[in-house]
Amino acid sequence: MFSPSRCRRRGFVLVAVLMLGALLLTCAASFAWFARMHVKSVNRERISLANRSMAKVLTRGIVNGTKENTRIKYDSPLIDWYKPFFFTVEDLGTWVVQIVPLDDKFPLRHLFLPDGSTLRNELRNTWEDVWSKLGHRELNYVVLDFLDKDTRSRAGGAERETHINRALLDMSELLILEEMTPEILYGTPEKRGMADYCTLWSDGRINLNVAPAHVIEILPGMDRPLAEKIADYREIQALTGMDDLGRIPGFPPKSRAALMNVAEFGSRYFLIKIEMLEDSGGGTSFSVVFDKTSGTVVRWEEI
Fold it and tell me: In the chain, which ranges are E strands?
C-alpha cells in the first residue's frame, strides 16, 4: 500500500546522501588544494633557504677575496674581478654575480670634521652645489643641523627635537625632516634627487673610476666638459692615480690639484649583486654592501 510519509522519508534520505556526498567531494577537493599549496610553500621555502645559503657562501668568498687583494690599488669596472660572471652548482642551479665598487658619490657620513659639527672645508662648495642642482638651496643648512652632533642652530638652519644629530643609518631617515619629500630625496623620472648625488657608502672621498659624470662635475675645480673627459678616458683605461688625470688631453693642472683632498681611485665599499636564474628554481636576488677594510657586510637585502 502506498505511504506518502515513507516516500518522503526515502526522499529525505536520498537528499541527505547526495548532500553528504557533495560535502565529502568538497572536503576532498579542499584537502587536495591545501596539500598542493602546502607542498608548494614547503618547496618555495626550501628553495629560498638554499638560495640564501648560496648567497652567503658567495658573499663570504667575495669579501675575503677582495680584502686579500692588495696588489691592485685602484678599483675600476675594467678590472675582470668586477665584471659579471656565472656561478653554477650541479643540481642546484646557476647564479649571475657582479661586484660593483662604490664610494661613487658625495660622502654623507663624512660631511664633518671629527668634532661632528664643523663642515669639512674641501666639501663645502660641493655640498652647496648639490642643493643648487636640486633646486632647494634653502635645505643646505637645515640638513646640516639635522645631522651634526650639536644642538645649536646654524644661520639659515633650524634645530628641532626631531633631529637625529648623528650619522645616517639609511637615506630614508632624511624624510623625518618636514621639508624633505620623496621627490627631493629620490628624484623623479624628470629630475635627479639627493640620492643621485650622495651616498652613505664612502670613506670620505669619491672614486673617479666609478662616480657618475653629474657627480664629478660638482667637485672642486670641475665642470661638465672636464667630467665628461674623465668619463670618456676611464671607459678605455682605468685611472690609477692623480698622474693619470694629467694624461687626459686638455685636463688643466689646477683642476687636478683641486681634486687632491676629495678624489681617489679605489673604493672601500662594494656592492654585490647576486641573482638566481630560473634554472635554480628560485629567481631570488640579493643586494649586499660590504666594507673592504673591515671585511664585514654592512647591508643585506633580499629582493
Answer: 85-89, 93-101, 106-107, 198-199, 206-207, 263-264, 269-276, 285-291, 296-302
Backbone φ and ψ for 75, nearest 5 degrees, come out as -130, 120
Quote the cell numbers at residue 140: 643646505
Contact between residue 159 and residue 141 where contact means Cβ atoms under 8 Å apart: no
Contact 101, 76 (CB under 8 A): yes
* Total-model pTM: 0.82
Dihedrals phi, psi of 166, to nearest 5 degrees = -165, 175
Q: Which DSSP string do the residues of 166-235 spell out, in sequence order? A: S--SSGGGGGGSTT--HHHHH-BTTB--GGGTEES--SSSEETTTS-HHHHTTSTT--HHHHHHHHHHHH
CA–CA separation, 206 and 217 (whole Å): 12
Predicted pLDDT of residue 39 = 47
Would you list the domain boundaries of the chain?
1-33, 109-200
Bridge partners (DSSP) of residue 275 are: 96, 285
Position 64: which residue type? N
Given a cut of 70, the residues of the chain with pLDDT beneath it are: 1-47, 278-283
pLDDT at 24: 60
Could you tell me the maximum CA-CA distance found in the chain, to the nearest angstrom?
A: 121
d(CA 19, CA 148): 73
Per-residue model confidence (pLDDT) at position 139:
95
Distances from the Cα of 132 to the Cα of 13, 153, 191, 270, angstroms = 84, 21, 13, 29
